[in-house]
Write a structure and sequence with these properties.
The chain contains nine helices and no strands. The protein has 184 residues and is mainly α.
């Protein structure tokens, strides 16, 4: 007779998380997962798809979670989903109709010029540099946590972060707009 995943986990000495607390913890992670997914995917719609796939995978595979760091586990799953999707897209290119036809609604909150400059600078980074930058700077993970999530050495995390910061600063500096008004 086949065992349920929870029975297998108990047999190995791991207590599976209760459904209610696990789902509540996942719900509390959605805002930061959404930010990370959008930064990886470079678009809101692709980011939402990535977020949905990640949450689905986390919920389906909750029996595999070892109870250590749910946030890091979810971010690792999202990173791996993005890598798989990016690999597939690079092998099978397609055209995004919404962007070419101008059907997307513009976000009017904040300074649109500054938001556009920042988005262009982020998009200019390689996916590896962008993921390290987002995990350390925006999500607040430590270098070792990011190294574990991305399965890379800690020195690689530090060098990618340094390069990403330099590239962002250079991109933002070259597109800097100087005001024409003189101080009074």
């Amino acid at each position: 007779m086949p065992h349920a995943p929870d029975q297998d986990a108990r047999a190995k000495g791991v207590n599976p998380p209760s459904t209610e607390t696990f789902e509540n913890q996942i719900l509390s992670l959605v805002p930061s997962l959404r930010r990370y997914s959008r930064s990886l995917a470079k678009s809101d719609s692709d980011g939402e798809d990535l977020l949905q796939d990640c949450v689905e995978k986390v919920l389906v595979r909750r029996g595999q979670w070892r109870g250590v760091n749910l946030r890091a586990w979810a971010f690792t799953i999202m990173t791996n989903l993005y890598r798989d999707r990016h690999r597939h897209v690079s092998q099978h290119p397609s055209v995004e109709f919404d962007e070419t036809l101008g059907l997307t609604a513009d976000d009017v909150s904040g300074d649109p010029l500054e938001k556009t400059r920042l988005q262009k600078a982020l998009n200019a980074l390689s996916p590896d540099h962008r993921s390290v930058l987002m995990l350390v700077v925006v999500e607040g993970y430590g270098y070792q946590d990011v190294a574990d999530m991305l399965a890379i050495p800690i020195g690689t995390v530090m060098s990618r972060l340094s390069r990403a910061r330099r590239q962002m600063a250079a991109h933002l500096a070259e597109n800097n707009i100087v005001t024409l008004r003189r101080p009074k």
